[in-house]
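Action item from last week, closing it out:
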Amino acid sequence: MSNKLITFLGCGSWGAALGSILAEKGFLVRFWHRNQSAIDEMQISRKHYLLNDINFNKNVSFFSEIDLAVKKANYIVLAVPSQNIREVMMKARKYIEPSTIIINVAKGIENESLKIMSEVIFDINAEISNYVTLSGPSHAEEVASGMPTAVVAASKNIDASKTVQTFFSTNKFRVYTNEDLIGVEICGSAKNVIAIAAGFCDGFGYGDNTKSALITRGIKEVARLGLRSGAKLETFFGLAGIGDLIVTCGSVHSRNRKLGEKIGRGMSLNSAVGESHMVIEGVKSAFSIKSLSEKYEIEMPICNSVFKVLYENADPVSEV
């Protein structure tokens, strides 16, 4: 067994799927979760409360105290919803060693500051040099069941991204590196909003023609926002961009697409959100992206329509 210690802050479905990859490779894995009853359940059953395919092995442990979970960790994976990243990191930061690699897997833009996740982390500690975002077309359900998957490790520090690449890679989970941190994080955030629009189309009963057009025009919007934010064009036509957009717009596992489908069938936003056991990042990201598009004076008609449906009670049929 490896003596490397990895702490996951958050134990939702994606964090659990990634943690299981590392545990199977022999690493010591800790999960912190704010819900004590969920921790107790997983500790006893060795099963995840959302993913039946996960059986936690003996090198996985669970914590409700963030200081105990974080101390002496070689890697920390941020696997809480994007709007909670700042709060959780503020609690954890004094226990984090300077050499620790911080790996973010949350996909969102902070509502209050309109900052992507790397900017939030650097706000909290500008001295962090080992920050990596892991993103790409990857549903937890498929990773947990061993389906081949490819993702991107993005960082301004190429050595850190290569370390994460080696760390996570298996014969079924391939990791590529990318130095365009801004582009990868913009892709991960904005694609969820486009996927809600794709769900509207599914709810109306529209077909492949409609969704193909939506995805094609959607990646143009995402790239427009990314380029204005300082990203590189090629990022939007790789795994983190068009790859993640395709899977999020089309998959039965996509929370954002499912939410859009329910609204397209006539359900209210509150009812659709209430039926989900997991956070649907696109709902909050729609607000952030609308604000950013106004700030940068760029046209994002699909994202703007999603915002109007979610927050201004607009009719999704007329908007799409």
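Closing note: The mean pLDDT is 95.
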